[in-house]
Amino acid sequence: MHTRYGPLLRWIFRRFFEPVHFPQEAQAELEELARRGTLVYVMRSAGILNFLYFNWAFARRGLPLARAVLGLSTWLVRPLAALFHRHPTPPCENVVQAVAEGEAAMVFLRRPKVLQAKGSATDDPFAQLVRLQRRQQRPIYVVPQLLIFKRAPVRIRPGVTEAVLGTAEVPGRVHAFVSFLFNHRRSFVKVGKAIDLRALVEAEPDTPDERLARKVRGALGVGLARELRAVVGPPLKPADRLVDETLRDRRLRSELAEVAAEQRRTEEQVQQEARRALREIAARYSPAWIDGANAIARWVFNRIYDGVFVDEEGLRRAAEASKKAPLVLCPTHRSHVDYLLVSHVLLERGITPPLVAAGANLSFWPIGPIFRRGGAFFIRRSFKGDRVYGAALSAYVRKICRDGYTQEFYPEGGRTRTGRILQPKYGLIGMEIDAWIAGARDDLCFVPIAIDYAKLIEARSYAREMAGGEKQKESIKGLLKTPAVLRSRWGQVHLQVDEPISLAAFARTRGFDPANHTPEEKKALVRALAHRIAYGMGRVQTITPTALVCAALLGHHRRGCSAAELQARIALLRRLARSRGARFSALLERGGDDPVASGPIHETLASLAEDGQVTIRTVDGETFYQVPEEARSFLAFYKNNIVHHFEEESILAAALLSFPEGAATWGELLPRVAFVSRLLKRELSFRPAPLESIVERKLDLLGGMGLVDAPTPFEPEAEARIAARPEALEPLRFLRNLLAEVMESYQVAVGALDALEAGPMETRDLVRRMLDHARRVYLAGHLQCAEAISRPTFEKAISWMEDEGHLVREEKRVALGADWRDREARARFGREIGRYLGDRA
Length: 841
Fold this sequence. Notes:
The chain is an alpha/beta fold. It has 5 domains: 7-232, Glycerol-3-phosphate (1)-acyltransferase (3-Layer(aba) Sandwich), CATH 3.40.1130; 239-532, Glycerol-3-phosphate (1)-acyltransferase (3-Layer(aba) Sandwich); 542-637, Orthogonal Bundle (Arc Repressor Mutant, subunit A); 644-737, Arc Repressor Mutant, subunit A, CATH 1.10.10; 740-835, Orthogonal Bundle (Arc Repressor Mutant, subunit A). It is 51% helix and 13% strand. The strands form 6 sheets. Strands 8, 9, 10, 11, 12, 13, 14 and 15 form an 8-stranded mixed sheet that branches. Helix 18 packs across helix 19. The radius of gyration is 31 Å and the shape is globular. The protein starts with 6 loop residues before the first helix and ends in a 6-residue tail after the last helix.
């Protein structure tokens, strides 16, 4: 291989090769392999462009260069060789000779041929390499790699262009150069898992060389295909063909036949209804459209955000998992930007963009057709009782699972208005599990993702809805506000990725058998997986300066908070978050806690003050911060973005401070922790662990921080008292106050149930009564948290009361349960909640 080029070639290579993304982890892995053994680079299809790029890239990074190459066409040099009667050494022998001398080599598996898009195989050196490995100790590593410069999926029926110029899998020369010319800035390298020939030979010493060679070549073909599939996705099918294939699903046809018999309709009529439903649902995935939309998204994000920070290691783990099973991406849902952001991040990193489950409320023109071509498939918010639509949707999910598409859906169902992660919806998760049980795939990988915004575009509208305003329906009018959004800056965005969850492995840990299970066992698996996903989403939420400042400010209910108090609270939250491995934004990692000194905390407070959300006053040289009452709901959204990181400490502090002296035995404390946890079960996502072990760990943590006195080592059966330290009462009250708004909301909700004594009410009417009651008690001074006046929280409170049997549903109305028909019983429960609120001054 040449490493020295003239000025013109050097300029061309820098111009076109430098922008290609070469992953740092791949470079580190190749360096380590080269230190231990000899490398044989293997690529899927031959091409001078691949040869030139890797020659330049390896030389630039100090990686071993291939001394011999197998698979490149020699048509240019054959006439010269014949003219001078030269008989060059066969390339296959050159490769083996180079490896025998400890030099790297390069092998192309196929040569592209126009009008034969699959290409033709090259000579096979692997049997000779296996024989060579048997004779030497130094390992030979066969390393699959790809240079990908076009993300277009393979078409089921190649068109004229593909037939003449080759496909994305095996491109011809013209196809390769033209595609690279237009896409070189978005091209990237993929390096697969190396095959250790020495380990293979030692594991199968009696296997013939030719058989081992076939195993190596087969493993390379599968590995390269998986790497390519992870980028370009499954073969592309027209939407109508996908609908036709879905309608051939046996289970769907059986369900439609049952519906036809029950409703006394012909099967043809029911199938036509299913076809209409599938056309309403199905995406019309267009790679060209997605690339164009991504270019616009790149410009928009660069204009409105100060940076999109991505968990690259987490995405790499997800990409690795996608080679074994299709991914189901499960992000938090706070903004309409979420849909665009996830696809943009994946495209920029060479990962297949997903098919996205979107609400049918977004299918209006012109957004609907645009989203549909971008991979969105639309689902009605409610289709209870519509068996044809439900069966068609389930069949569509099975189909896209079977075809291997990456999927994305939002377990919360809709955007959270409170900032807390909503309790997961079970519908789509159940359909994914049904597809797995039906054998659509051996496994699926669910990937929890958290998206956190320094400033949310919809925050003001959420605050209005929280206070009782009606949700604004998506419309063209909303789109017209886009120019105002583009003229503003919205801070940083963070996207964090939790560990992928293998469905097959998760089911095994719960003893679930897909071939033999009861409906109750399946429901339990759906619930467990849904809550595990929600917990994973919360676990990787980014702690941003805005969220940290808002949490510190809203944990305070006096008129003002001094800079020293604010700094102490920020420091406490940081310490607790670090104890559980929470992730901080880069700004916070570099900045301190002092709100007065220059840094991210000071800048965040200044920005909030400029927006009228915080008032900053300096009196006698001391700085104080005040939150206007009307701004509390706005700031609560950001506080609730990170409250998941402190929920366990907050509940424990509330339970401990509910005792008059802030002291209790284990037997006294645990029931009160359980009460608060049960009260908030619809508001928070708890870690999957026994309550006793969580409390024990948190007591140990708070004891180590000097906030509580607890026996060490901790013995739950002992009667030793657990007590809040006198000097720690203020920080413990602050921790309790992080969840005070929710408990106040539930207390107010219980107090508003007197309206049901006159008879059952529709849920929306009851929520309206709760909002009115909350405003009255707030104005009377009996409600301290203005943010407790919250429509979404009241709706959750009603659902919680139904779960507990305190309310019962009569058709579409709710009525008082038997245990709460007595007004005094409700009052006692309200007082019980009040015990955990205490004096929050």
